[in-house]
Design brief:
With 75 residues, the protein is an alpha+beta fold. The protein has two helices and three strands. This is DUF4258 domain-containing protein.
Length: 75
């Protein structure tokens, strides 16, 4: 399945919290749900749960998620 990279705008506090949860093996549900919604907005259908990849170093800070999408849906 192809992957779609999603970038979500964030601030330092939330990005730090998401990263801490990821390192502890937990999930930040709000950002994961937002990543899934972003895939739908792009006209694709998620094939699995969004996977947290990391945060960007620049400004604005963004949360990075990879989401598997079905190939039979086209934007």
């Amino acid at each position: 399945m192809p992957l779609m990279r999603i970038q979500l705008d964030s601030d330092r506090t939330i990005a730090r919290r998401v990263l801490e949860l990821h390192r502890a093996g937990k999930i930040h549900h709000e950002s994961r749900d937002a990543a899934r919604e972003q895939v739908w907005r792009h006209g694709r259908t998620p094939a699995g749960e969004p996977v947290f990849i990391g945060v960007t170093n620049g400004e604005p800070i963004r949360l990075l998620y990879d989401v598997e999408v079905y190939t039979d849906t086209v934007p």
